[in-house]
Amino acid sequence: MRSQCIATQPHSALQKDLPAMATTFPTQRTLLFAAILAATAFGGIPTQTASADWGSLVHQMHVGYHRNVAWPDPFNEVDALQVVMPFEAMKRNGWRMHNTIGHELFRGGDGALLAAGQNRVRWIATQAPETRREIYVLRGASQAETQSRLKSVRDAVDNYVLDGQPQPQVLVTTIEPATSPGVMATKINRERLEQMAAPKLPTTSAAGQAGITQ
Fold first, then answer.
1. Which of 59, 87, 125, 172 is most enclosed, with most CB atoms within 10 A?
2. Residues facing 210 on adjacent strands
3. Does residue 152 contact residue 170 with C-beta atoms inside 8 Å?
4. What CA–CA distance (Å, rounded) separates 52 from 127?
């Protein structure tokens, strides 16, 4: 009888009853939320802990999304830095070797600077780039000789550096710079000068006109 009554109702009456029937049944999202609350309440998991875990998960998803969108940044910057680092190390080692005051620049016994050593210290303290003004003193045969070398270099720096300018650091090193005999350096310089092309003025100017030599 009930089915017959429902069948005999007009279509508009059924449409009016559908929203009321839909509101009586919870949606799937509501059921899921209720299950999570029940699990946290009866499963021994505090609600605050579950909320913190959920917030951490949302944050990780947010970070992962923006990281994928921004790819390849910032990973390309890390790769570029790793490529540059070996060259920076080579530059630093090269300047350390250049700024090392070796055995041949000190007088034997008392550790006083020779004339060549004075010139080297003056160039480093006044002409080298400000970020590279570090003077390395090669360690002597004894502690007393090393201290004498340090005192000689510091006295020379005090004479060359003006008041108010930063003082170069004077450090002790055990790394002896690679050197070559003076005869070889002289031979290389002479051959370079002999093979150098003779300077001359251009025959034409940049505009195509005859040069001064014409």
1. 125
2. 204
3. no
4. 60
